[in-house]
Each structure stands twice: as C-alpha cells, then as structure tokens.
Amino acid sequence: MKTLIKFFQTNKKFTMKFEIVKEHEYQKTERVGQIIKYFDLQGDKIVESFIGDIDLDFDWNVGLIVGDSGTGKTTIAKQLFGDDIVSDLSFSENSVIDDFPKNKTIDEIIQTLISVGFSSPPSWLKPYSVLSMGEKMRVDLCYSLLMDKDLIVYDEFTSVVDRVTAKYGSELFSNKVRKLGKKFVGISCHQDIVESMNPDWIFDTNKMEFVIPQKKKSNTELKSISQLIKDSGIFLESITI
Fold first, then answer.
1. CATH number, domain at 173?
2. pLDDT tens track for 126-173
3. Is the pTM of this model over 0.85?
4. I need a labelling partner for 88 at 20 to 30 A (CA). Which of 41, 153, 200, 216 fits?
5. Do 77 and 175 have their domain in common?
6. What is the C-alpha to C-alpha distance for residues 241 and 232, in angstroms, rounded to an integer?
7. How many Cβ atoms from other residues are within 10 Å of residue 139's Cβ?
8. How many whole angstroms separate alpha carbon 185 and alpha carbon 178?
9. Residue 4 sits in the same domain as residue 73
10. 39-59, pLDDT tens digit by residue?
C-alpha cells in the first residue's frame, strides 16, 4: 500500500485543500486472477483518490473528523494539527489521581474527572495500568484538559467505550471544552456521537466534505464540586475503599 498526499494553501488558520491518492499493487495469484476476470478489473493496482477542502477560518471550540477506517482521518489530522494530537502521556504513580499536573488543585481535578464521565472515586485511587480501556481514555482526556494547552486533538475518540457511554461522554466533554475556552478535535469512526458532541464543524472523510452543522443549545453553566458530585451520582459518605 502506497499513499501519496498533496496539500495546498495551508496556513495557521487551518485553511487547507488536499489530494490523497492511495495505491495498492496486487499479486496475480489464481484467486486474484479470478476476481479480475469476474469483475473485469483493469491494470495491476487499485488506485483510490480523495480530494478535500477544510476551512477553519472562524471562531470554534469543538471539531470532529469522522469517517470509516482507511479514509484518511489520522493522516489529515496529523497534517493539520501535528504535535497537538494526544499521545505518549506518562502515568507512573500508584494512584492515578497523583498523576495529574501538580499545579492543579484537587477541586479542579475532580471537576474535570467528572466532566469526562469518570466519576468513580475508588478508581481514581488505582494506578493507570489496571484501569479498563474506557477508563484510560477518560483519564487521557482529563489530563489533556488540565494541561496548559489551548488545542487538544484526540484520535480514536470514544472508540473503546460502549455507544451509550460514548454519547453521554461526548456531550460532557464538549461542554467542558467550551467552558474552559479551549479547542478540541475528536477523530472517530463513529457517526453516532455527532448529535451529542454538538461540534462546531465536521469533516467527513467518507465524502471528503467539510460541514458546519446547525447548532443546538448546550448547558454551559459552571457547577460547583458538590453539585457535580450530586449530578454524577457519587455519594462519598457511602463509599468504602
């Protein structure tokens, strides 16, 4: 498999036109030869070409790059956002609560953990290595929000959680991003999070189309720790650790 990428008119405002060409040369085995004959395929390789146009030259907080596997989501995101893609986070403490940035208060950490849908205090006291894949994703997102970065880009967003949790978590996380005034780009193969995530823009790599969806109102009221705990169903006095 060979991928050729051409990018044009890229600038700091993320206005970009591009062409992605994917080539796959196949070996003419007996079965391959039968497929070529049955379906009258021409040549000795498969060539796919995608042309896209992304224009982020407006004020935004939440974006979504969505499409099936192999449609160029990560490739496009790397070209647009580079080092802002969340990766190589380090977690080494005995309790994950101690892994978060030292300049953040416990209230800030609790608020952010709950805002990403990770509302289990006993699990906060476990090391990162023993958490489930879904819990690890939430910790990654929480850590990213607590970093002193204005732009966060997350690949495989919600891919490792069930779809009910994905929708609920997408809404919580998007609201938190807006409250903090940050920018977030989720990269996902799941279309079912679009409504709950309520993004300011969508780039669909299945169609190579850039879309600004009709916005719905979201609740961005900043809540206290006690209210967040109540809303999330945490009752600290009843937990035995």
1. 3.40.50.300
2. 999 999 988 998 999 999 999 988 899 999 898 888 888 888 889 989
3. no
4. 200
5. yes
6. 19
7. 23
8. 12
9. no
10. 988 888 888 777 888 877 778
